[in-house]
Amino acid sequence: MKKIFLIILSLFLFAQVPCFAEIDWEELYENSQPFGTKLMHDIDPYEDEDNFKYAYTPYPLFRTSVVLYYKNMRIDSGYYQLTPRKMNGKYYIFFKTCGKVKYIIPVVKRELVEEMFYKKYVPEPKLTRGQTIAKNWKHFWRRIFKDSGKQPPPSSYVEMMNLETCYVLKLYFKNHCYFSVYKKVPY
């Protein structure tokens, strides 16, 4: 009986069974629908609420050196502030420059991020000795005298995957990861 149990256990442990199916990014791209309406004066309606809580904008800055294509849109190379938003029951990524929304791209997939993702994979900035002393002094001072200042911005990280026919943008913001797909050539 023990031998049979060990054989069955070893079959389960060493079997080459794929756990996750390969994601078909092309199909997700084809099934995604662009944002139907235009924002008034190209202003994000919830930007003031977000910026009120923080000393500076909480959204990550993204630099692209290639031209990205989504359906009939051409996203030129440059710097963009990426903002995930839920509009009309769907999630979108706003590409903003100078406070104005330039492009609105749908999110094709949204996942939860593991708890310790930012600690494990995102490097901490290296501080000089003077910066470390100033940071510790500020932390000590704020423990004694409660500060009514702004909150620190939420954790965020941007990653771009280069596949054969498309690019996949992974935007990690707070405890979610937002995926969007772009073509390398015009649609």
Description:
26% of the residues lie in helices and 33% in strands. The protein is an alpha+beta fold and 187 residues long. It has one domain (21-183). The strands form 3 sheets. It has a 4-stranded antiparallel β-sheet with strand order 1-4-5-6, with no helix packed on it. The protein is globular, with a radius of gyration of 22 Å. Mean pLDDT is 84; it is low at 11-20.
Oligomer: single chain
Please state the structural category: alpha+beta
Share of helical residues: 25-40%
Question: How many helical stretches?
Answer: 5
Question: Main β-sheet, in a few words?
Answer: 4 strands, antiparallel
The domain tally reads 1
Q: How many angstroms does the end-to-end distance come to?
A: 61 Å
- Order of strands in the sheet with the most strands? 1-4-5-6
Backbone CA Rg:
22 Å
Task: Give the percentage of residues in beta strands.
Answer: 25-35%
Question: How many runs of DSSP E, i.e. beta strands?
Answer: 10
Name the overall outline: globular
Would you list the SSEs in sequence order as H and E? HHHEEEEEEEHHEEE
**What number is the mean pLDDT?**
84
Spans of at least 5 consecutive residues with low confidence: 11-20
